[in-house]
Fold these 3 entries.
Entry 1:
Amino acid sequence: MNYAMIRYVLSWIAKVEAGLLILPLLIAAIYREWAVFPVYAAIVALCLAVGLITSKKPKNTEIYAKDGFAAVALLWIVLSVFGALPFVFTGEIPSFVDALFEIVSGFTTTGSSILKDVEALSHASLFWRSFSHWTGGMGVLVFILMFIPVKTGSQMNLMRAESPGPDVSKFVPRVRNTAKILYRIYLGMTLIEVVLLLVAGMPWFDALCITFGSAGTGGFAVLNSGLASYTPLQQWIVTISMIAFGVNFSFYFLLLHRKKKAAFRMQEVQFYFIIILTAIAFITVQLLWQNGVRPDLATFEEVLRAASFQVGSIITTTGFSTVDFNQWPSASKWVLVLLMFIGACAGSTGGGIKVSRIVILAKSIKKELIVLAHPRTVRKVMFDGQVVPHDVLRSINVFIAAYLIIFGASVLIISLDGFSLETNFTAVAATLNNIGPGLDAVGPTSNFSAYSNISKIVLIFDMLAGRLEIFPMLMLFMPATWRRNG
Amino acid sequence: MQIIVVGCGKIGKAITAQLSEEDHNVTVIDTNAERVRAVSLSYDVMGIAGNGTDFEVLSDADIEHTDILIAVTHSDEVNLLCCVLAKRTSGCKTIARVRNPIYSRGQNYIRQVLGISMTINPEYAAAKEIIKLIRFPSAIEINSFAKGRIEMFRFKVPEGSPIIGEKLRHSSFLNDDVLLCAAERGNEIIIPDGDFSAEAGDMLSVMSLPSKAISFFDKIGYRKRGGIVKSTMIIGCGEMSYYLAQMLIKSGIAVKIIEINRERCENLCSLIPQASIINGDGSDEAVLKEERLSDMDSLVTSTGIDEENIILALYAKDKVKSKVVTKISHLEFNDVVKSLNLDSVINPKYITSETILQYVRAMGNSIGSNVETLYRLMDERVEALEFHIHDSCGLIGTKIMDMHLKNNTLIAGISRGNDFIIPGGNDSFAPGDSVIVVTTNHGFRDIGDIIEDRNPLKDIGEFIGEREANR
C-alpha cells in the first residue's frame, strides 16, 4: 500500500467537498436561513483546512491496483462522513448514523431517506441532499482525476475501481479527456431538464433539486408527497429525463459524433428500451384491468403516466414516486422488483446489476444449454457484434455471486429488527441497487427511520457496495490490503 | 497529439508507455486481444483488437484525426501497408519498422514512393549507434543531422592539444571540413567567432562529416591518448553485426568477425570481402587468445545470448585497448546491467523506441513552424535546429556574409540533395536545402528568424534598454 498517495488523494476529496459545500451555503444566503448559514460556512472551512493540511504531495506517486480499490472505497467513505456533518450540526438530523445514512443515500444516488418530514428541512440542507445525487451520479473520482497529476498507469487503477459496468470503456484515449466529455454531456442534459421544468412552470428551487435527483438517478424529493403534486406535464418531463439518464453515455457520445448507426446498434440500449416498454405495457394493462376503483388512477392517461413514471424511476434506480405503488396488484409490484435488480445501462448514472450484465448472463445461459445439448459444439457469447472475452464472463459471474451473498447476509442481519420479509427484502434491494424506496414498510410513502442503527449501518454498506460495484468495499475488509507486504 | 501505435510487442509497449506519459493521446492496435487488454489496463490509452491493415479497425481508431501512426508489428509488410493506408486516408505522418534488408536497401526510394515519413531498422540503427561509439570513444555526445549525414560531436579539449590557444580565424584544425559550433567554458556558453581560441578543459561541439571526423580528432591529439580506434573485433555476426562491419570498413577501421556458424561465415565472405572472417566459438578463451584479442582496439559482443555477451565483455574489459560494446536484447533489469560496470551497452529495441520517440517529440516541437529537427543541447541552453528552405524564402541567393545574423546564431550546415556543405561566407541557400542553425536564442520558428530585425524603433528600444541597464 502506498499510504502517502492515498492520503494525497483523500486530501483532494476534502478540498473538492469544500467547493461543493459552497453551493448550499449560497442557497442558505438566498433564503436568509441564518441559522444554518454559519454551520455550512464552518464545515466549508473545516474541509478546506483538512484538505490543505494533508495535501503534501508524496515522492512516490504510484498507485497500485490494490491501492486503487482501497482509495476509491475510502474516498467515498470520507466524502460521506464530511457530507453528513451539516445535518448533524444544524440539528436537522441529530443522530450521526441517520445523517450518514441520508448523505450516503445521496452520494450513492440511492434516495432512501430516514426523514419523516422532508419539508421541515432548511432549503440549504434540501439542496445539499439533492446536489449530492448530482455529484455522486457521475462519480467523484473521475472528476478529481481531472486535477490530480498521477502516472497514467496509476490513473487506470483508480478509474477501473470506480467505473460502473463490466469493463472500463473510454471514448477517447485519455481518461482525462473522456471525463471531460462525460461531464459535458452530463451538464448539457442537466441544463436541458432544468429549462424544460422551468418552462413547464415548476418553481426554480424544486426544478433544480428534482433535476439533480433525476440526473444522478438519485431520488430525493423536496416535498413530503414526492412528485405526486406536480402537474402531469412536469411528471412526463421527469419520466423522460430519468430514462434518458439511464442510457449508456456512449450512446450520446456516438450521436454527438454523427455515428447514428453505431449508436442505435448498441445492444445494451436496445434491450434497455425493450425492457422499459414491456414493463410499462404490462403494468398499464394490469392496472386498467384490475384497478378501476381507485380515485388517483381513473383515466387511461393517469394510468399510463403512473406506470411509465414508476417503470422509468425504478429501472434507472432513481426512486421518485408519483403514486403509492405499494397499493398496486402484486404482479405489477413484482415487475418493479425485477426492474430494481436489472438496473440501468452500464456507463450511465444509474445503479443495479446493469442491463449489459443481464443480457450477457442470459446469453451465456443460452450458450450453456446449447453446449449441453451438443457437447462438441464450439460457441462464444457475442455482445455488440464482438466475442465477450472469457475474463469478462468470469468477472460477471463472480460479481453476481458476490452480489447474492451480500444480499443474503444483509437481509439476514436486518431481519433481526422484526419487520416483514417483504420489507426487509425490498429494503436491501432498494439500497444495494441504489434505488430508494422499497415496498411495504419502506414503501414510497414511508421511510427507513424505523430500522435500528446496526441495520442502518448494514444498509449504508450496501449502498456504497452497490454504487462501487461491490469489490472496492470488500477489498477494505481483506486484511492483506492493509499489510505492506500483503 | 493523436497517435496510433500498431503492434504491442516490446517496442510498441515501450513507445506507448512513454508517449502516454508525455501527454499524447495514444490508441494501440494489435491482433492479440489479450495483449491489447493488458496494455490498455496498465496505461491511459485506448486499445483496439484487430489488424492494423483493416480499414474498419483504423477508422475505429479515428485515423482521420491522427497526427502520427507508428507501425511496429513483427511483419515488415503489415507495417508498410498500415502506413500507406493511414497516409492515404488522413495524410498523417507515418513511421514503420522495416528490418528486411531487401526493403531497407532501397530505403529512401520506398519511403518516397509510399509516402512514409520514417522507416526504422532496429539492427541498422543499433549498428549506427555502435559505430559512433567506436569511431570516437571519447565523445560525450553525438547528434545526427540531415538524416545522419552530418554529426555534431561534443568533446573535452585534452591537455597539451595543439588546438589550444589558436585563434579560430587562423586555425588549421577547424577548417572547411570541421566547423566549431559552440564552446562551454565553466558555466558559460559561447557561440564562437573568429577571435575565439580554445583552452584546455573546454567542451567543444563541432559539426563535421563522419568521414572527416577521425582525422580531425587524430590531429588535435586524441591518438596519443589511445582514443582512436583502428581495429575492431565482432563476436557473433547477426544482422546488426553485418551492418556494423560494413560501416566500420567504410570509415577505415579493420574488422575481424568471429562467427560460430560455418555457413554464415561463407556467406559473409562474399558479403564483406574486406573483413577477416574467423569460423570459431567466440566464447572459447583459446580462440580469443589466438585471434589476439589483446591487440584489438575495440570489441563488440553481439551473440544471440545476452548472458554470453555480458561475460565476454567483462572478460575483455582490461584486455581491449579502448572500447568494449555489449549488445543486450532485454529491456528490463537495467539496474543489474548497469551495476556490472560494462563499458558501453547497446540495446537495439531501446534505440528503436528512442529514435521513434525523438521523431515524435521533434514533430511536437515543430507544429506550426518550419523546424524539421530540433535538438536541445548542453542542458537545453543551446538549440540546434534544422530548417527546410521553401521556394518562397526571402533569403535565397543572399550570401551568408551579407546576412545580418542575430547574436549567438550560427549557420552550421547546408544539406543540398546528397551533398553536405559546411558553409563559409560565400555560400548561400537554394530552394530545397535543409539548413542547420545553432543558437542560444530560443523559439525560432522559421528560417527568417535568424536575421537581425532592422526595425529602427526596435533599435531605439534596445538602446534605451541598454542605457537603463548601464545605470
Note: The mean pLDDT of chain B is 81.
Entry 2:
Amino acid sequence: MRINFWYISSFFISVFVLIPILTVFSSFFENTSNYYQVLKDTFLLEYILNSLILLFSVLILTFLIGTGSAYLVSFFEFPFSNFFKWALILSFAVPPYIYAYSLTAFFENYGTAFTILKSLFGEANYNQSIPKFDGLFGAILSISFSLYAYVYVLARASFLYQPQNLIDLGKNLGFTKFKTLYSIILPAARPAIVAGLSLVAMETLAEFGAVDFFSINTLTTGIYNSWIAFDDLAFANQLSFFLLLFIFALFVLENFSRKKAKYHMNSRGGFKQKQKIKLSGSKSLMAFTFCFLVFFLSFLFPLIQMMYWTIKFPENLIDLQITKLLINTLYLVVLSSLFLIIFALISNYGNRVNKDKTLNILSTLSISGYAIPGVILAVAFITFIAWFDESVVKTYGFLSIKKVFIGSILGLVIVYFIRFYSLAFNGIKSGYEKINISVDESSYLLGYSKRKTFMNIHIPFLRNSLLFVFILISLEIIRELPITLILRPFNFETFATTAYISASEDLLEAAAVPSLFLILIATSFIIVTSKYILRDNYE
Amino acid sequence: MRKISILTLITSLFVSSFAIANEVNVFNARHYKADGELYSKFTNMTGIKVNLINGKSGALEKRIISEGVDSSADLYITADAGRCGAMDAKGTLQGGLTSKAIKDAVPASFRTSKWVGIAKRARIIYYSPERVTGAELSGMTYEGLADPKWRGRLVIRKSSNIYNKSLVASLIKNNGKAATAKWAEGVVANMARTPTGNDRAQIMAVAAGEADIAVANTYYLALMLSGKKGAEQQEAAKKVKAFFPNQNDRGTHMNVSCAALVKGAPNKANAVKLVEFLLTPQSQEHFTNNTFEFPMIDGVSPSPLVVNNLGLDFKQDMKTKLASYGKNQAAAVEVMTAAGWK
C-alpha cells in the first residue's frame, strides 16, 4: 500500500462524510419508546404503503413523461422540437414543494381555477366541479412533474448514442415505429433510463416539502414526526430501517445500471450521425402537443401561478428583502460548491493514483449521503455534535462547540457537503473516466509530479465536468429545504425557507414571491449551462 | 503568511460575529408579518436587538432540546398552548415570567411561570346558514359534534394538527379519556371527507357546499373577510356564519399564542422585557388589527372585523387551564388515532 498525501486526503474525506451517516444508523439503536405498539403497527403499515404508492406512481409517471418526451425530441423533427429539447429541462427549476403550492392555489375552493371560470361564465358555484388535486395524488403530480427531467436528460443522452445502424436494422426488418421503440430503442437505453429512475426514486423517498405540505405520512415524514414531534427514536428507528432498505435496493440497482451504461456507451463502433425523421400533419401535431403539455404543466403552470399571485398581492413583493435573500442563497451556493468540488477532486485523484481497494470501498460508501433524506441528516448532525460536545469536548474542559456547528453557516455547509458529496464525486468521476490513464503515464514520463499532473493536466481536461457539477450542486442548494430550515443561523433566510415558512402558516400568497424568485434564479442557472447538460456529442 | 491570510479569510467567511450585544434571541414559530413589525418597534424603543430564527415548531423544539443548556434561545414563541406545555414537560423551560406587569395583564389560567399567552384565539364552529337551521345549532357543544345528525356534514383538519390536539386534550380534561375516545369515533363517522387542508380550507369547504359545518379558529374568517386573501375568498367568507359552542356550560375552547422562557437563556432579562412589551396595549392592538386574534389583556378591543362578524359577547372557557393541553396531548393523539381520524 502506498501511503501518500493523496491517499490520506481521500481517506479522510471519505471517513468525514461517513461519520454522520453512521450516526444515523447508530442513533437508531437507542430505545426510548413511549406510545402504543398496536397503534404503531398500523402507522408503520400506512407509512410503508404510502411510500410505495408514491414511489411507484412517480416512477411510472416520470418514465412515461421522461422517456416519451426524450424519444420525441431525439428521433423526430416537428415544430419547436429544438426549443423543447432544452425547454423540457426547465422543470428542474421548480422544486416539488413549489409545484404543490401551485396545484393548491389553482384547484382549491375559490382558487385560481374558480376565478377563471367566474370571469368566463359569470357568477356560480364552480367549486364542486373543479377537481381537487391534494393529498397523495397532489404529491404524486408535484414530484413527477418536477423530477421527470432526470429521466429525460439521461434517456435523451442515451438515445443520441444509439447507432443509426441499429435503427436501420429495425427498418430493414419491417418494424413499425412503435415496434422499433419497444424492441430496439428502449432496451438499448435501459441502463440510462434505470439510472434516471433510480435518481427519481431516491429523491421521491427523501422528499419532504411537498409531502409535508399535503400532510401525507410517508416513511420520511414519519421519521421526522416520530423523531421530532414525539421523541420516539425507537419508532423512527423502525421506519428508517425500512426506508434504508428501499434506498439500499435502489442504490445497488443504480450502481449496477451505471456499470452497464458505461459498457454500453463505449461500444459505439460505426457511429453514424442520426437522421431525425420529419413529422408532418397530425403526427407532428401530436408530438408537438405532447411536448407542449409537458412543458406547460411542468414549468409554465407553476411559473404563471406564482406570477399571478405576485401581481395579485403586490404588498408581498414590497415586504420581501429580495437582495438579502439573493445574497444569502448565492453565498451558500458558492461556498458549498467550492468545498464540494475541491474535496471531490482530491478524493477522485487519490482513488485514481492509488487504486486501493479499501479506499475504493470507502469512497463508494461515502457517497450514500445523497440517499439519506436531508431531514434525517440534519437531525443526526445535531445529535452527533451534541453527543460529541457532552462526552468528549466538555470532559476535557474545553468550551462548548455547539454554537460553532449548530445554527452556523459552517454547520450548514458541512451537512450540505455530506448530502451532496455524491453529486460532486460521481460527476467528477465520470469526467475522469474519459481521461485515459495513459495521459497520466505520459505526464509522469515527462517528469511531471503528481501535483503538477493534477493541476496542469487533469483540471483543464475536467473543466466541463466541473461546470456541470457546479450547476447540479447549485440547483440542489437553491431548492434545498429541510437542512437549511433546521440548521440555519439567526436572521438568515433563503428563498426556499421564506417560501416554505409562509406556506406552512397558511400564507400561500406570500410564498409566491420567494417561489417566483427561486424559479427565476434556478432557470437562469439552467439556461446559462443548458449546453453542458444537453451536450449532443459526448466526446 | 499567505497561508495565514487564506485561513483568516476562510474563518471570516463562516463566522459572522461573536460580539456580545444587547439582544434577545427568539425561536419563532409564528410567522405573521405583523410580528416582525412589532419586534422592530421593540428594538427602536429599548435598543435591544431581536434575533429571529423562524421555523416550524417541531424543528425549533428539537434544536432547543439538542442544544441543551448551551442553547442560544431565550424565548420560544409559538401558536399553541399545547406546544408550550409540551416543551415544559420536557424540562426545557425555566421560571421567570412572573413580573407584576405580566401577572396583572394575563389571567392565571392563561399562563404559568414558564410561559404566558400573548394573544387569544377560539376554536369554533362555522356553519352554512342555508343548510343549517337555528334549531339544529341551538345549544351546540363540542361534544355535540359527535351527534349522528351531522353524519356526512362535518369537516375538520387532520388529527396531526396541533389545534385539534389541544381541543381534544381539553375535552379529555373535562370529560375523561374514555368518553372522549367514544366522541372521536362519532366525529370520524360524521366527517364529510377525509381530513385535508388547513383551517381556511375547512371554512371554504362549507362555503363551497362540500359540508355544512366546519371546525376552525376564529381569526381565519376575519382574515378572509379582510380581503387580504383576495375577492373570491372574501365572497366565500360571507357565505358562512360563526357559532361559539358550549355557551351554556364551561364556555368556548380558548387557545393562545404563547411565549416560553427557555432554560439557560443567555439574555433572560431582555426576554422578560420583550414579553412585557408584547402585552402592552399598543402591541395587543397591533395583534388584533393584523392577525385578528383576540387580545390577551383587558381594555383592548378585537378588530372591528372580528367584532362585527363573529360577535364579541361570548362566554370563554376560563376554567380549563391551558397547561392541561400539553399534559393531555399524548392521550389526545391516542384517542384520535384509535378512532381512525386521519
Note: Chain B touches chain A through 54 residues (CB under 8 Å).
Entry 3:
Amino acid sequence: MRKIPRITALVLTAALLLALCGCGASDGKTHLKFQIWDTAQKPGMEAMCAAYTAQHPDVVIDVQVVSWSEYWTKLEAAAESNTMPDIFWMHTNQLLYYADFGMLADVTDLYDDVESGYYQNHFSEISLNNASGSDGRYYGVPKDKDNNVLVYNKEMFDQAGVAYPDDDWSWDDMVDASQKIYDATGNYGYLAYSDEQLGYWAYVYQNGGYILNADRTAAGYNEPGGKEAMEFYIGMQQEDWCPDQTFFTQNGAGATFWSEKGAMFMEGSWSLLGALQNNPHMDGKWDIAKLPKAPNPVDTPESLDKDGRACISNGLCYSAAAHGKKLDVALDVIKYFGTEEAQLIQGESGAAIPAYLGTEESWRVAWEQYDYKINLDCIFEQFDYAIQIPYNSASPRWKSQVMDVVTQIYAGNQEIDSGLDKMTEIVNTETAKKLAGN
Amino acid sequence: MKTRKLSAAARREENWGWIMVAPTIIGLFVLNIWPFIQTIYTSFCEHLGFGHYRFIGIQNYTDMFSNTEFWKATWNTVWFCVLTVPVGMILALFVAMLLNTKVKFKGGFRTIFFLPLVCAPAAVAMVWQWIFNGEYGILNQILGTNIQWITNPSTAVLAVAIVSVWSSVGYDAVLLLAGLQNIPKTLYEANSIDGAGKIRQFFTITVPMISPSLFSVLIMRLMASMKVYDLIYMMSDETNPAMADMQSLMYLFYRSSFVAGDRGYGSAIVIWTVSLILLVTLVQFWGQKKWVTYDI
C-alpha cells in the first residue's frame, strides 16, 4: 500500500463531499425554479407555466412553495450565495431592499418590442409603484392586487335586529352594531386585533392621517388624524364586545369569526376564496362589505383622502434574479406572466385578482363553481380609493420595531401617546439612516 | 530537540487515521469553527444587507448593554433555567427510580415516558398551545381557573417551562436509569444488613453512584435550557402582549437577525449567550469535584 500524505487525504475527502452536491438535470432542457409562498396559488401558477411551456417545449418550470414565515430568510440567504431561484414573487415591503442592492433584474425595457408605454397602459399606478426601485425603474412585472374588506355574520345581525353594513356605514355604526350584537347574542362584535395591513393602517388613512408622508421620509402616527384613529382602533379592545389582545394571540380573529363567536372582522381579499371553501357550514350566513368610513376625518394638507374612505391595497410582482445563469429565459417567462393571456389564467384559477387592467373581473370565474355567492362587487369598487401599502426602503428595519411598541401599548406597558411618538421616531430614524447610508 | 521517528507501517497507519477523521474535522471546521469566528467578527459590524458588513467597533455591545429588552431576555433565560433544570432533574430521577423497581408493564411505562422525545417539537408545542388556551384550553377547564397561561407576563415563562420539562423528562430518565442499573445490588444488601433505611440508602449509595450520570444530564439540560428558542417560537408570536416577558436570548437573537435584519446586533447577543454558557459550564466542571464520584 502506498503512503498517502495528510493533505491528499483531506483533498480527496473534500472532493468526495463536493461530488455529492454536483447533481444536475441533463435532458437538454432549460430548467427554471419559480419560488412562491402561497400553496393555494400553486395550481394557478402552474397553469400559467404550463401555458408558457406549451409554446416553449425546451423550458421546464418548477414551481416551489416556501412558506411565508421562512420565505425572506431563505431568499436573502440565497441572494448572498448567488443561488436565488430564477423567478420568484416579490413583496412591496422587500422590493426596495432587494432592488437597491442589485439583486433583481431590471425589467423596465422588457416590453419595448411589444408596445411603448406597455406598463403605463396596462397596469395601475399603485401596481407600478409596487414594482419600482428607488431609481424609478421597474424590478418586477406586476402580478396581482388586493385590498381588505369587512367580513360579517348575517345571522348575528339578524338576531340583533341590526341592518347589514352598507356603503354609508361609519365607525360609529360599526361600534353601535357591535354593542347591539353583543347584548343580543353574547357574541363578540367587531374583532379589532393587532395588525397593520388588516388593522390600523386603513383606519389611519380613513381618518385623514398617514403612516408615511408623500415622499415616504417621515411617519405620521402621532399626527392628529393618525393619533385619533390609533386611539379609536386600539381602544376598541377596551369594549365588552371586543376581545383583548391576549385573546387574539391565542385564538386569532379569523378562527373566532368562522367558529361563529364574533360578528365582524377585516380580511384581505386574497383569503376569501379559501374561506368559502373551508367553511361550508357558514354558507348563507356571511357576506362582505366595504370598510366602514371615518365619521369625522381630520382635514390637513397631507390628508390623502377627505371623505373618510380608504382601504389598503397591495400587489405582488414577478421578479427575476439579476445574476441568474438563465436570466434570458427567466425574463422571457416573466414577460409572458405580464401579458393579458397569463393574467387571465391567473385570475380564472382564483389565485388572485390580476394586476393587468381589464382582466380583474376574471377572478370572478373561480367563484362561479360555488353555489353560495358573496358581494364581490365591493372589492372591485374599493379600488377607486385604495391607498398603496405604506413602505419605504427602510421598512424591513422599522417594521418589527414598530410592531414591538404596538404590542407594548396593547399590553398596557406603554402609554398610547408616547408610544405613537416612539413609533414615529423609530421610522424617521431608520429612514434617515438608510437614506444617508446609500 | 527530539525528532519523531516512525516506522513505515506506523506512518501508514497514521495517515489512514487522518483519512478516517478527515470528514469530521472538515465538518467541524466548516460547520462550527469557521461560522463561530465569523460570528465574533460580525458582532462588531453593522449589517448593510446581503452579507455586506461595515465595521463599527463595540457599538453593538454598547447598544445591547443599554437595552432593557436585552436584560429582560437575559433574566427570562435565567428564570427559565431555574424553572426547568432542578425540577426537570428531580422529576427525571424520580421517574428513573420508579422504572427501576419491580412493577408490571415496566416496558410499557418506559415507552410512555420516552414518547415525548419521539414527537416533533413543533407538534408538541401546538398541542400544548391548545392545552394552555385561556378561553377553551383543557387545563383551565380541569383546574376551574381562568388563567391566560401564554399571554400573562407572570405565567408565560412557566408555561414554556412546563412543556420543556414534559418533553425532556423521559429522555433524562432513561439516561439516569442506565446509571441506576449499573449499581451492584450487593451494595444495597450490605447497607440494609448494616441497618440503613431507604432514605439513607438513597443519599449514601444511589446518588453517589449515579452522580456521573446526573452530572452529564445536568450539563446537557442546562445548555439546552439556555438556548431555548423553538418552544417560544412555536407557542407565541409577535403580537403576544407578554412577548417581552417570555422571550429568551435566542429568540431575541432570531428576531434581531432575521426579522429586523440586524445581524451585527444579533451576533452580539449570540456571543453574550455563548459567554454565559461557557461561564456556567466552567463553574459546573469546577463544582463537580465536590460532588461527582467517578470511582467507588
Note: DSSP finds 19 helices and 13 strands in chain A.
